[in-house]
Amino acid sequence: MILLLMFSFLTGFITILAPCIWPLLPIVLSASSAGGKRRPMGITLGVMTSFTIFTLSISYLEKIFHVNPNTFRLIAVVVIGLLGISMVIPPLATAFENFINRVLSPFQSRLQKNGTGFATGFSIGLVWAPCAGPILATIATLAATQAVNVKVVLVTLAYVVGLGIPLFFFSLAGFKFFAWMRQVNKYTGRIQQVFGVVMIAAALLIYTNYDKVIQLKILEAFPAYGNIFNSIEHNEKVSKELSALRGEQETATPTQKENSESLPDLGAAPEFQGIEHWLNTSALTMEQLRGQVVLIDFWTYSCINCVRTLPHVIGWYEKYKDKGFVVVGIHTPEFAFEKENKNVAAALKQFKINYPVAQDNTYGTWRVYKNHYWPAEYLVDAKGRIRRTHFGEGRYDEMELAIRQLLREAGHVFDVQVGTSEDTTPHYDRTPETYLGKSRMERFASVQEATGGVQSFSLPDSIPPDAFAYEGPWEISDESAKAKNGSALVIQFRAAKVFLVIGPGAKGNQIRILIDGKPADAATAGADVKDGQVILDEERLYHLIDLKGKVETHLLRLEFQNDGIFVYAFTFG
Known about the structure:
By secondary structure, the protein is of the alpha+beta class. It has helices at residues 2-15, 25-31, 39-65, 70-88, 91-104, 118-127, 134-144, 150-184, 188-207, 210-221, 223-233, 236-246, 304-320, 341-351, 364-368, 396-409, and strands at 277-279, 293-299, 325-331, 357-359, 376-380, 386-391, 434-435, 447-449, 456-458, 468-476, 481-483, 488-495, 497-503, 510-515, 518-519, 533-535, 540-546, 552-560, 566-572.
């Protein structure tokens, strides 16, 4: 944990040098140009406070107040814009700053004096969007699933403290520069007004999301420089620490042989909580299942990692169901449409799942198991004790050996052999899962065009590796993007297979699939593509590209033939 805290601090410390932060630095510099001597510290504390609060609690605030998380960002944009206006019109500056300070921090009486900049810093913190490397991505994921604990808070605080130190000195340098300018230059007031215009312009860039375009251009211009930051967070030891923070480690000793020593006791299996629907069974409780060996499998039907585990889970169930073994699938949705009972029922039919499945739409069972990963498996013995856990794909033989050991402990006898299906877990570098909604959007390469309020995009000169871009008119929400007839979606991927979660809008709508500029054919088309087209039927995971086991880099283009088609996330195999 100490190592992770040190790397989190280091990551925060160097964040101010990262290319993706540069578009926000003019705001910090502009805010430092006016006010009293406490202003640099006020700005720094404001950024640290708001970034910490909203990073850790956004999902809680959304649940309590039923507010779109983007609302807070828009409020911050308004505050930054108004502060810029007050700098352009000097008589408004002090009054406006003190008013906002009273609103945002009524208990911070000291921060209300001398234009300390706490309000400005607080607003900057709401739009502070650092390069989301593994450390921040882990924090954000755990916060989104309301799985924040003391360790997550400590890692966040270590990052924020690291961030605050250089931010304070940057703000202090700006303040002292402008203080010196006032003594030697009679036009300092005009210069301050210019920086007010800079703040207004920055607010507009953030409002239109064009700041992301600038960030991308900077990263494209300095790719090697950007990779320095990635290499720090991708340190092997840090990755292990993050896996432990997410709970991805094996908490039970892997079982290599059927006659190995007993599996450890990891505590009582919690009861199912908050289940809205049961499929393939009437409502179950862990008490009712006492006497059987139970595999609790957290999954969601559009997650390709979960889909790859299903043949093994189904195989275990069919092999041992008459020998005291049962699987309970806990379907915890990643997207809103996955909450629909009919969609989950259709997925069970599609994958030929016959074991009990519970719809955990409100994350009730997810939380009591303290889970935070898809897929995740908890193996429970006949006495109701958790004896083994596994997170992610792979190690299928080890799990089956553990199942057999617990069945023998319960007195069951069988003569079936170990092994079910081929392990299809990818063991090579491939494009990571790519979300297409704005709440988790990464590696976005489009250039947004001004079209009277409608979001319309054009493609950049080139698409960076693993990046995607929209073309034409799109309506982008937090978790998805809605296309119009003539819209296009382009991604440069590295993988052997490409999948996309799609909502058809209407049954029969179509998408044209092109790879490297040519329609997908028999050599490249996935199972859902015929004659270079996908004919949509329902909300589900569609198989678009299959390179027959060859891991290659290609440019995939999707051309939408109808209005109203939704796209959610790419996954790669």
